[in-house]
Every structure is written in structure tokens, then in C-alpha cells.
Amino acid sequence: VYVTSSAGQIKLDDFAYRTATPFVELPANEDIRIGVALSTSSSEADTIASFNVMFEAGERYFAVATGVVAGSYNPNPNGLDIGFTILAQDGIKEEAPFGGVYVNGFHGSTDAPMVDIRLRGTFFSYAFFNDIQYGDFGTNFWLLPGSYTLDVTDAANTTVVASYEADLSGLGGSAVFVFASGFLNPAQNGGVAPFGLFVALPDGTVLPLPTAPAPTYDRWALNKEADESELASGSVPRDYALNQNYPNPFNPSTTISFALPQASNVNLTVYNLLGQRMTTLVDGPMSAGNHSVEFDASSYATGVYFYRLTTDGFAEVKKMVLAK
């Protein structure tokens, strides 16, 4: 890979499939040419594809080479172009606050459909990359360092396609890049490169994520997060709804509101990132209407928490961030 700018030329020699580099500093606000050649090349003149890009001053980007060059491959199920290209995403944060880890992602499997990547808890899952299709990025999802299980589901959240373990221990303060790579059906794509999730670390090291056992959630846990239901005029809501807490991020307290179109048994519980129950805010019968509960997190540590509302006919999970 040849990267040519006013500062000279950078050659990434023998840059293999599923490899990465650390962040590379390049001139801003000028045309930069990226040329890709076979590993036997001796100069930029041997490039088989080239791309011109311009980067903004002070920005951080992830750039990904993706797609197929030649051969017989299954088309993308969403009708997207799978020809070889380089895609870049701006707005990347290189350092995460509060000792956390920023997780960024990319869907790079040409024959895979639109999916969600979900963070698995003991009693629920949460889609931190929602409805991403081939060529899409997901950016700056903040997590505490630790070990997590990631589930890849279809966009309707009816089927878990694959599950992986992601050990982010020891990566506090940094950003990582999780990417889907390979073919969902390798037998129909030359018999090579089966689908997998990989993580690129800040130093450029790329590690395959090991597979994990399938989840055992109840059916509500895989319900797709819906937009907040539109409330009917008057005092009684038309639909169930769990609203985003406000303020968010918060310190030390926040308000969680929800709507019940009919009287119901209600449970509102707060969990940590590992799916461990932290506190139950509501547990009992409630009347129809709009309700709100204050959550005081004075005794909790900075981090991401989830709150889950369960009623007789509805369940939903949302994320909130405590920033002290």
C-alpha cells in the first residue's frame, strides 16, 4: 500500500489480509493518494487500484480496504456494491475518558446481510451497533475494560448468527476497532475466509475473537429496540414506552420515565455492563399512565449501566452513562 502526500510516501510493505497499523499522521486539507499493489510490486507504478482522499485537520479516521477484486462471489443480500474499495470514517476518538475503552466497528463481510452486534448481559442484550450493513461503521461505544460476549444477530433480532468473546482488559483509555470479515457462506465464495469477528488494537495488532456459546435469553431480550412510542393525547398513553433517561450522561441522579397504556405489573431494574443487577427501582402493580422514577447513583462507579422495564406485555432495555 502506497500512501503519497506532500510529506512524502509511506509504503506499507506486504500488508496482508486482516492486518492493521497504528494511527498514522498524515497532512490535512490536501489530496492524498492511496495506491494498492500486489506484494511483488517495486513501486507505486505497479498499483492495481488507487484512491484520492482528503482528511480534515485534527480529525482521527479509520480507513478500511474492503471488497473483492476478481472471481466468482455471491452478491450482497442488500444489493450493495462489493467491488474493492477503501472506506474511511471520521470522528474517531483515540483516547477514551474515565478509564474506559471506545469500541468502534465495521461490517466487512460482503455476503452477510444487515446485522446488529449486541452486548450480552445475564438477563438481556443491548445492540451497541444497530442495523449495520456491509460497508457501515459503528463508532465510539464506551465500555469499561473487561471481558464481554458479543452476539451477532439478524437485523430483526430473531436469530443469533454467531457469538464471540471479546477481552478488553488492560485497554483502558484507548480505542479498539472490531470488524466483521470473511464470507458467511465460504463454500459459495471460493471456499476461503470464513466469517469471523476480529479486533484491531491500538498498536496495530489484529486478533481473532474466539467463538462463544449461544445465548439463553428469553424472547424479550432479543426484541429490537424500537423508537419511543408516540403517546396519545390525554392522560392514558396509547402504547407502552420506555424513554431515555434524562439527563444522560448524569451525575449523580437521573430520571427514568415510561408509559403504560393499561394497568400492569411492572419491574424496572438497573444492571451493570456484566448483566449483574444493581438495584430494582419498581417492582409491583401500577396504574395506566405516564410514570417517572428517579435513580440515585451516588454510590455507584462511573460507567455504562442499563435499565430494563418489564410489564405484563412489554419489555425494553436502554443504556445510560454515569460520569463522575
Structure description:
The structure is a single chain. The chain has 324 residues and is mainly β. Helices cover 0% and strands 43% of the residues. It has no helices and 22 strands. The chain has strands at residues 2-5, 8-11, 32-36, 49-53, 62-66, 85-89, 101-108, 115-120, 125-132, 137-143, 147-154, 160-167, 175-181, 196-200, 206-208, 241-242, 253-260, 264-271, 277-286, 289-296, 303-310, 315-322. It has a five-stranded mixed sheet, with no helix packed on it. The protein has a four-stranded antiparallel sheet with strand order 2-1-3-4, with no helix packed on it. It has a four-stranded antiparallel sheet with strand order 9-8-11-12, with no helix packed on it. A hairpin with a 2-residue loop joins β1 (2-5) and β2. The chain is elongated, with a radius of gyration of 23 Å. Mean pLDDT is 88; it is low at 218-234.
- How would you sum up the global shape? elongated
The number of E-state strands comes to: 22
Strand content: 35-45%
* Fraction of residues in H or I helices: under 10%
Q: Average the pLDDT over all residues and give the rounded result.
A: 88
**How are the strands ordered across the major sheet?**
10-7-13-14-15
Q: Cα distance, first to last residue?
A: 44 Å
Count of runs of 4 or more consecutive helical residues: 0
For this structure, the quaternary state is single chain
Estimated radius of gyration: 23 Å
Order of helices and strands: EEEEEEEEEEEEEEEEEEEEEE
Largest sheet: 5 strands, mixed
Q: What would you call the structural class?
A: mainly beta
Query: Uncertain segments of ≥5 residues (pLDDT<50)?
Result: 218-234
